[in-house]
Amino acid sequence: MNTATIHPITNHTKSVINNIRSKDELAFTEFLPTNSSNKYLSKITYRNRMFTPELTLFGFLSQAIGADQSCQAAVGQIIVHQISQGIEPPSSNTAAYCKARSRLPENVLSGLAKESGQDLEAQANPEWLWRGKHVKLMDGSTLSMPDTPENQEAYPQPSTQKKGSAFQLHVL
Prior knowledge:
Layout: H1 3-22, H2 34-41, H3 53-65, H4 71-84, H5 95-103, H6 106-122, E1 142-145, H7 149-154, E2 168-171
Antiparallel strand pairs: 1-2
């Protein structure tokens, strides 16, 4: 692979991450549309607490992308955000944030990631497409499947694999 094509993308990604990290805001608040996050967060039942699902989500995203990924740094980021918004900040104790973060349903994060990816793909400049097509990339090098007669017929065992193995592994 030509490294000249990799470095500009890598450098751009690093510059975007560094730009997000350098702000005093919670990460991704400007990128995730409110209607998208509300669609997932409105389904969560919670008591009226300092760490609402929305504040917890953006605190968690800031924590995940931050140079210091500790809960203490995340709470510090939330405190700065709350003060900048003129809102009473939470305590610097991390216990409430950690509990709120553990209550965030996984489908909120995966749903927002999928929807954000689809939105970004829909906004892609047509000049960026390969022959007018959206290219899909797979991350991984193996595929496994049940050792059924139908799969054996469609995907015969490699000659290097012992016959009758109960588990098939095909290297892509």
